[in-house]
Amino acid sequence: MPYHEFEVSKCIPERRQHAVVKAPGEDLTSCLPKGYLNTIPGTISERGCAYCGAKHVIGTPMKDVIHLSHGPVGCTYDTWQTKRYISDNDNFQLKYTFATDVKEKHVVFGAEGLLKTSMHEAFDAFPAIKRMTIYQTCATALIGDDIDAIAKEVMNERGDVDIFVCNSPGFAGPSQSGGHHKINIAWLNQKVGTLEPEHLGEHVINYVGEYNIQGDQEVMIDFFNRMGIQVLSTFTGNGTYDGLRMMHRAHLNVLECARSAEYICDELRVRDGIPRLDIDGFGFGPLSDSLRKIGLFFGIEDRAEKIIGEEYARWKPQLDWYRERLAGKKVCLWPGGSKLWHWAHVIEEEMGLQVVSVYTKFGHQGDMEKGVSRCSEGALAIDDPNELESVEAIRMLQPDIILTGKRPGEFVKKQGVPYLNAHAYHNGPWKGYEGWVRFARDIYNAIYSPMRQLARLDISAPDAAIAPGFRTATMLSDPDLPEAVRQDTRLHQYTGKYDMIADIRARNQAHAAEQAAQRAAATPAE
Fold first, then answer.
1. Beta-bridge mates of residue 254
2. What pLDDT is recorded for position 255?
3. Which helix (H) or strand (E) holds 404?
4. pLDDT tens digits for range 20-53
5. Does the bond joining 236 to the residue before it have cis omega, within 30 degrees of 0?
6. Quick check: helix, strand or coil at residue 151?
7. 180: three-class secondary structure by DSSP
8. Please, which residues bridge with residue 446 across strands?
9. Side-chain half-sphere of 389: how many Cα atoms within 13 Å?
10. What is the pLDDT of residue 493?
């Protein structure tokens, strides 16, 4: 087993089993770090908690819900507005967050009265919102507040509201992944099957494990609309509370993020017989294969092929322009969960980047297995790294860019390495064909930013030279390219709009209105 021992962690010998280097000829039988275990005492982990995994990752993207945390206000603040889960509901779920603001006196005397008052106040403040999710936190779980009983009381008193209770305190698992599981199963047990759809089309899916980061969901919905597929619910990005209550009537569960939402798909298969189909919206090849699989399931492969042909013709030359300039650049994939294996192979194949490291902070062994199997020999794979280990890895690997979260990204910048926010994106969406070109564009801009060159200058040196003046990204990226590549008129930079979602959203809304009008016209008058 080619374990890698960090100098900074030699005082914690257990950490040696959480990092490996993929040597030539190694496979998963001999090259796999331990993962999804409790954080080792003495190492300062960057993990989130189970409450964060339930509320921040899965719950909050629902657009028509009051998301109320029952606990100290700090818990709520930590999960508010740190991801760009946009919606076509005027971003209600991003603008507002709600907390009962539990204090020490409530821990001593109980906080059920505070919870009930807070629920009524929230509904009164936003009378148009009739749905609520309550999230348990460590403090109120430890004192034993009966949230379920309070929720039933409020529903009985108000009559027109519906409330979902998520009992996922921070200590409910070794990482935020424990919260993913909790909210998946709780939603299925409490709410799925409590509402019937008014209409079911010929091809009906649930789109699961999609959180609409900067519009990812809306991009994929556009593809589904073009294929004639009805999306009954999205779990949970830009999705509705009542839509999720109808998940049991879909013909197929289309699963994007397996790490966060496979649990509800597997249970729906057992309980309601709904098949599960895993897809990947990142990269031209994986996305094309995904659309083909969905088309094959419904017998509409020709519709998928039409979309693929149109999108390749428009966007592939632009992706290739960036590939020529990114080839050979080293990247660390440190995104946290499933993106490490969604991206590991396709970034190398379609953008020419060399993946020199992958890590996961909360993923399971399956995530690391797929990530390690898809990255190249020599890559460093790490489970649950701490900041000092990450700094040591950066100095050893000398990457050109790191794709990670916002918190690690701040110290990454201090090492003089550019980073892109793999959790919330920089200039997304990054799913879809155009989105993948935007991703390549963001990587290119980060690596070749003139500011990066200036950041590495030691201006304190007596002979510091700043004579070259301002250089553009193209001046930095193109000099060593073959002349044939520089003069290739087929290749060109990204030509899309700054906001690509506005047009897609308008198309999706127009499609929904057209479908509703057709159903109304087909309904006999009473």
1. 207, 277
2. 97
3. strand 401-404
4. 888 777 665 667 777 777 888 888 777 888 999 9
5. yes
6. helix
7. helix
8. none
9. 27
10. 95
- Six-digit token pair at 165? 């209770």
Nearest CA among 98, 54, 59, 49 for reference residue 76: 98
Q: Residue 310 and residue 316: Cα distance in Å, rounded?
A: 10
Q: How far apart are CA 504 and CA 24, in angstroms?
A: 45
* Nearest-5° Cα angle at 20, 16 to 22: 165
Tokens read off for 118: 């807070």
Q: How far is CA 478 from CA 418, 441, 472, 485, in A?
A: 19, 15, 10, 9
Tens of pLDDT, residue by residue over 119-166, are 999 999 999 999 999 999 999 999 999 999 999 999 999 999 999 999
pLDDT under 70 in the chain at which residues? 1, 26-30, 81, 455-459, 461-470, 525-526
Long-range CB pairs of 406-415 (<8 Å, 24+ gap) are: 406/82, 407/46, 408/46, 408/334, 411/387, 415/391
Q: Which residues contact 73 (CB under 8 A, 6 or more apart)?
A: 99, 101
3-state secondary structure of 202: coil
Q: For 430-470, what is the HEC assignment?
A: CCHHHHHHHHHHHHHHHHCCHHHHHHCCCCCCCCCCCCCCC
Phi–psi pair at 166, nearest 5 degrees:
-115, 105
Which is it for strands 276-278 and 162-166: parallel, antiparallel or unpaired? unpaired
Residue 57 Cα to chain centre, angstroms: 8
Q: Which long-range contacts (CB under 8 A, 24 or more apart) does 302-307 make?
A: 303/226, 303/227, 303/228, 304/227, 307/223, 307/226, 307/227
Q: Residue 413 and residue 400: Cα distance in Å, rounded?
A: 12
Q: What does the block give as tokens for 133?
A: 């999710």
